[in-house]
Design brief:
The structure is a single chain. The protein has eleven helices and twelve strands. A five-stranded mixed sheet has the order 4-3-5-12-6, with helices on both faces. The protein starts with a helix and ends with a helix. The model has no long low-confidence stretch (mean pLDDT 85).
């Protein structure tokens, strides 16, 4: 019988479309994660992923298993939440897939130090899916990018924002003048994620580019960050990335700040959504501590 850990690992890889990124989010090594996925595939008796140069994608069987796995994980988390008590309880918190993958571990560390909880059980999904889980009380809270303007059935507050940089080849970077503008890149393809994977983020970036009167031609980029950076290094295009991802240095890739005239317009708001039935609501002091901790993590 598959373990809950295997199902959670499988769901994370499915959400990110990349074993490398999922391993970072889960704080495990890639070989260890790959072994868990392979063990699950052996148990199911079918391949769950198609492996390719742009990452991994679900097979037809994988999509069926993913649908069931998400429900099982949600039920397990709900059970843990319902029977948990005092300092022994876990908080079930969702994180938007496009945010810094290190936030989940840092938030868990700080919340445990503050004795808000004993552990954080994280989930990763697009922002809109996380908000649905918060409304259903399947999550205590969710940290999302590009929070919606209209809020129903949950509390939403802005806790910060994060800056974007541009990843481009070193060759292209050397050609830019000191006072360059976005339109100097108009002839280069912009590598963008599929809108269906990050709908709220894609809408935010589209609005930001419209406001900056920047309309480059676009090409769908791979989900795997290392493959994306390899494409950038080879001159296949450039990409907007969160500032936090500049820690992943890659040969031939230069990260550069956006021009000052448009930088503010590309700062992605980060929101905190809290379920009205969340255990965080049991104490005003505990809730305030949680919000302040989330603000610190979002501020870096």
């Amino acid at each position: 019988m598959p373990s809950l850990r295997q199902l959670m690992y499988f769901a994370c890889v499915a959400e990110y479309g990349s074993i490398g990124q999922a391993a970072e989010v889960l704080h495990v090594s890639q070989p260890s994660l790959s072994r868990q996925i392979q063990a699950l595939e052996v148990h199911i008796g079918e391949a769950l992923f198609v492996r390719g140069p742009a990452g991994v994608s679900l097979t037809e069987v994988g999509r069926v298993v993913h649908c069931r796995a998400v429900k099982i994980i949600a039920e397990a988390k709900a059970l843990t939440r319902d029977i948990g008590d005092g300092d022994d309880r876990q908080l079930h918190i969702g994180f938007s897939r496009y945010l810094d993958p290190g936030w989940s571990g840092e938030l868990a560390r700080q919340l445990k130090e503050a004795r808000v909880c004993s552990a954080v059980s994280p989930s990763w999904a697009p922002s809109l899916d996380l908000l649905s889980l918060v409304r259903e009380s399947s999550l205590d809270a969710a940290i999302i990018g590009a929070p919606p303007k209209v809020v129903r059935e949950y509390e939403l507050m802005e806790i910060g924002s994060y800056e974007h940089v541009i990843a481009l080849s070193e060759t292209l970077h050397r050609r830019l003048a000191p006072d360059w503008s976005l339109n100097d890149l108009i002839g280069e393809p912009l590598l963008v994620p599929k809108d269906s994977l990050f709908p709220a983020y894609s809408q935010f970036m589209n609005d930001a580019m419209d406001a900056a009167a920047f309309a480059p031609r676009r090409s769908v980029r791979p989900n795997d960050l290392s493959i994306l950076l390899a494409q950038v290094a080879s001159g296949d295009g450039f990409a907007f990335l969160p500032l936090s991802l500049t820690k992943f240095a890659y040969p031939g890739v230069a990260f550069t700040a956006l021009p000052a005239a448009v930088n503010e317009g590309f700062r992605l708001p980060v929101g905190l959504a809290v379920s009205p039935t969340s255990r965080l609501r049991a104490s005003d002091t505990q809730f305030e501590c949680f919000v302040e901790t989330a603000r610190r993590v979002a501020a870096g």
